[in-house]
Amino acid sequence: MRVMKENEMRYCLIQNQQINMITGRIGYMHSDFNSDGESLNSTWFDEVESRNSFKFQETLNSVIDVLQNDPQYRGVIRNAEDMKLLCSTRPNSRLPVNLHSNSYGFRVDTDNYAFLLCCNVNPEHYSFSITAYLRETFDSHIKNAEKGIRFINSNYKTLFTIPDGDTIQITLDNGEQYTRICRYVDDYHFQTINGFEEKYVNLFHICQFAELMEKNGNTVVPLRSSLPDDCFVYLESTNEIALIQKGALGYFQTDYAVADADENKNNVILLNKSRKITPAQYEAMKAGSMFGWAVPAADPKNYDDKGIPLKSKIRELGDSR
């Protein structure tokens, strides 16, 4: 048993059947602690029934027994209080708010199966869930998905790449905009969905998507989850404090500026620091607002902790500017 990795967290959600098949998903269980805080009410949901074998059922029952009763695992699902204690001492297991509110994720492996345990410390619907996968199939898909989703033009030139589960912004020729979450299928296919846990999806070949966007006069940019929604920037030429919004070109005026330039510069640092915006994110946000959000310079992974472009990316960043 270990803390769930970031690239595993979205797989504890309900998915469409195509993703279920290629990830080796079997099904999931929702469980509630009764009013005494200890006894359980559980319901199992089959998703790929052919994988729910007698061997799997034996393994699932064994895993639940171990998580409830084995001191090695601190009785993580023995009762509500023990579960909350385990989660509170492992803050790095907390799931992103856009996936689950007040929830913590762990992974439990056996020889053949992987179980994703999602603990809800302030449950609205259930106390915890366990989602089951064929371990080898699941790990293979996770490894492949690390390559990310590639966006190209109709000539197969790579425009940008986003991680599985990140969002794109599509701007129509009339200026209307909408966003879509993208899920990795394989190196040449991806799905778009309106939100996590949505079963209705559009499946695209990367070239098909490029041709469709070009035909309709649409533009596509990444809304990277590694970037903040917005940040403040100091404009030296006008002694202003402006606001940059992810996905938007240019900047928006604010009324934060004062007459003293040094004070404005310091206030920008303090404002961004209060939002926990790193120097790498700050530099990437500035580049995106000036040169477009698809350029390499708009990706914080291309900077070090001080916001300086990585040596291996200096030429690439220079070209994009």
Strand content: 25-35%
Strand arrangement, largest sheet?
Answer: 1-4-5-6-2-3
Give the mean pLDDT: 90
Q: What shape does the CA trace take?
A: globular
Binned, the helix content reads 25-40%
Give the SSE string: EHEEHHEEEHEEEEEEHEEEEHHH
Q: How is the biggest beta sheet arranged?
A: 6 strands, antiparallel
Structural class: alpha+beta
Specify the number of helices: 8
Uncertain spans, ≥5 residues at pLDDT below 50?
A: none
User: Count of DSSP E strands?
Assistant: 16
How many angstroms does the end-to-end distance come to? 46 Å
List the helices and strands and how they pair.
Layout: E1 2-3, H1 17-23, E2 25-33, E3 40-46, H2 54-69, H3 80-88, E4 103-109, E5 113-120, E6 128-134, H4 135-145, E7 149-152, E8 158-162, E9 167-171, E10 177-186, E11 189-193, E12 202-205, H5 206-215, E13 219-223, E14 230-235, E15 240-245, E16 252-253, H6 261-274, H7 279-291, H8 314-320
Q: Can you offer a commentary on this structure?
A:
Helix content is 27%, strand content 29%. The protein has a 6-stranded antiparallel beta sheet. Strands 12-11-10-9-13 form a 5-stranded antiparallel beta sheet, with helices on both faces. Strands 14-15-16 form a 3-stranded antiparallel beta sheet. A hairpin with a 6-residue loop joins strand 15 and strand 16. The termini are far apart. The model has no long low-confidence stretch (mean pLDDT 90).
Quickly describe the structure.
By secondary structure, this protein is an alpha+beta fold. It contains eight helices and 16 strands. The protein is globular.
